[in-house]
Amino acid sequence: xxxxxxxxxxxxxxxxxxxxxxxxxxxxxxxxxxxxxxxxxxxxxxxxxxxxxxxxxxxxxxxxxxxxxxxxxxxxxxxxxxxxxxxxxxxxxxxxxxxxxxxxxxxxxxxxxxxxxxxxxxxxxxxxxxxxxxxxxxxxxxxxxxxxxxxxxxxxxxxxxxxxxxxxxxxxxxxxxxxxxxxxxxxxxxxxxxxxxxxxxxxxxxxxxxxxxxxxxxxxxxxxxxxxxxxxxxxxxxxxxxxxxxxxxxxxxxxxxxxxxxxxxxxxxxxxxxxxxxxxxxxxxxxxxxxxxxxxxxxxxxxxxxxxxxxxxxxxxxxxxxxxxxxxxxxxxxxxxxxxxxxxxxxxxxxxxxxxxxxxxxxxxxxxxxxxxxxxxxxxxxxxxxxxxxxxxxxxxxxxxxxxxxxxxxxxxxxxxxxxxxxxxxxxxxxxxxxxx
Amino acid sequence: xxxxxxxxxxxxxxxxxxxxxxxxxxxxxxxxxxxxxxxxxxxxxxxxxxxxxxxxxxxxxxxxxxxxxxxxxxxxxxxxxxxxxxxxxxxxxxxxxxxxxxxxxxxxxxxxxxxxxxxxxxxxxxxxxxxxxxxxxxxxxxxxxxxxxxxxxxxxxxxxxxxxxxxxxxxxxxxxxxxxxxxxxxxxxxxxxxxxxxxxxxxxxxxxxxxxxxxxxxxxxxxxxxxxxxxxxxxxxxxxxxxxxxxxxxxxxxxxxxxxxxxxxxxxxxxxxxxxxxxxxxxxxxxxxxxxxxxxxxxxxxxxxxxxxxxxxxxxxxxxxxxxxxxxxxxxxxxxxxxxxxxxxxxxxxxxxxxxxxxxxxxxxxxxxxxxxxxxxxxxxxxxxxxxxxxxxxxxxxxxxxxxxxxxxxxxxxxxxxxxxxxxxxxxxxxxxxxxx
Lengths: 437, 437
Fold this sequence. Notes:
- The structure is a homodimer.
- Chain A is of the alpha/beta class.
- Chain A has two domains: 13-50 and 303-418 and 426-436, Alpha-Beta Complex (Aspartate Aminotransferase, domain 1), CATH 3.90.1150; 72-297, Aspartate Aminotransferase, domain 2, CATH 3.40.640.10.
- The first copy, chain A, is built from 14 helices and 14 strands.
- The first copy, chain A, has helices spanning 6-9, 12-18, 23-32, 52-70, 80-91, 111-123, 138-146, 163-175, 199-212, 266-280, 285-297, 300-325, 351-360, 390-414, and strands at residues 38-39, 106-109, 129-134, 150-157, 160-161, 180-185, 215-219, 243-248, 260-263, 331-332, 340-344, 363-364, 366-367, 380-384.
- In chain A, the strands form three sheets. An eight-stranded mixed beta sheet of chain A has the order 2-9-8-7-6-3-4-5, sandwiched between helices. A four-stranded antiparallel beta sheet of chain A has the order 10-11-14-13. In chain A, strands 1-12 form a two-stranded parallel sheet.
- In chain A, a hairpin with a 2-residue loop joins strand 4 and strand 5 (160-161).
- The two termini of chain A are 36 Å apart.
- In chain A, 57% of the residues are buried.
- Mean pLDDT of chain A is 90; it is low at 18-22 and 417-437.
């Protein structure tokens, strides 16, 4: 490499991605994982709640039954048995044969993240527009930005994506002569906002997209984690065409096996398989066999019920703690399910600038800016309640409230210290490492 | 999608990849996997040779010992324990601390295929040039072509890549004003040619690349499968800089777990991790834990010895069968290790045109054109000997020889029927599905 630097040498993709995550944030997560810190930062499920011994026995039996094929190469689309089981899982949210769902249109992926990456590779060219809720999943933002697509955020309220805002965004983009490729949405227990698209709006959003000829990418990692209220059918359950659906076993079973999937219209499915083969040859037959065995030999819906009870208690504890401890002027969402609460700070506070002081006080969260493509969200943060037990949640919220009160009193005396460390013009460094699922 | 077809809608990457694999070839592989067909087509290792019961017990113990973390999210670079073990494996081929190899510069990937995809994402822009042996690994070709790089083949002989041909290619590309990003090479027991870069040429090729400032990507899936002759140190073992090394556990343990790795200079490693995170969040901690347990609790080098003996016997059987059965004018390579023999047909025969007739005669192979970016190789084929037992190998070669003799006699009488079905101007449809590892 004599005479050239790495940056001269690497491609444009690598130069783009360089600005997209930040070692400072990765370092922060390393700190946040210390036992003395109450971490509301990650989106990791409580795998300690799995019946580990029974899973061990299951693996032993799996090897005896079909070890040779599980350890061998498989096919790019994923194993047929698992694709059939995936259809049974999707049927729990209304996606079944009546709306045209079939194992033949399922592609198994290396977790939901690779599903998004495959979709981006199939659809996105530099300069294309993607609509996404604002805020939206940080890993999706990373994929779209790496593909050089422009993410246009659509506002949400407590009922989810606002249909009128979507219509307006479509009109604006159409006028600008750019091509909008799809709406990326997490309609149920959204990451990071925790809100859910209401029944009425589901129909309305689909209508708008169909009229505009706009594809919908529905990402649904949390749909089976409802703690109260009536289940709402997935968007994909309501229409036969126009929706690409992304699912994962990362929350219902294990993120460590890295198994997700896409349900796509047939012609798209075919392309996803080709891209999958080019990228990884085939999704792990071993991981797929493990998920298949878990679904077919274990009482997984009972386990899921156990997780729902555990997470509901933790959500309740966090909501109660926020209500009793947060300073006046703080607002937060009230999720009916999923893993996240979205907090809006009192005026003048800056969640990223405050983070080092929160870590000092032994509590961690994800600053809101990471969930926007445009640097907004400085006064917001995402709190996850699924990992710490209730007493730790209360203690963590107490620590957080105390940090916020200090910030507010310092600000009242000295002006606006919260802006220290702000990175105007470099919003990308706010993006958390994609490990923040 | 009213009014637009899928091809209007999908991005340019998807439109490119459309031409890169062919459903006809995928169908062919489905046919080739029928039990009555002797398949020399795949590159799958003999996983039935693994001690499956012991692996089952190992998995059970793994869950008891560290199930909760194996089932949880991990980090984008891969687990530290496995990266240390990978360094011990690489040390068997001379890559150790003395040449600067360190666990910190290893990135764990979803098999060797994803390693190549990550490298392509980091380095390649449309129009860049990649040098590769001609023929070369089909999965690498797919990745480079999808990245819109131009693959320039460099000729080989029985001693591997020809240094003078590499020098000439570098000069030609430099004159044309294009940027050559790296030399992609499988120096040891090459896929598909089966040849090995000689000791003297290893030093010479490194010299040429260093003088030209050309990065080397060394792909080494087969290095530990030597059946005769003296082991040669890997290219990476000879220099501290300028070589990115790709390894995999797909042949030494299991392709089904999809675990490979890259050893890269530190600054490149950092970028590979970022791209890995964007693509899959993290390599499967579960698969990684399984490989770690296999390496630390099982006599894996003894297993490897068993595989070497098994494959050597099959290679010998195939070489003997070729010598006694092939029609005059047929040539083939004599691999000292690995999984593949490269056959050059007598003048006038066309391996792809002949394939349907071979399948009818219940024998399968991969036509040579798939291993070239430029449509050459019509008179070549790749034979793999690792899966069929010796008596099936003899029978398969007998069937193949008989098909070739029929082709030659038909050709002698009627002219050139072998050209039937040829796809002039569409060399891309010759490319086998990337599942052909």
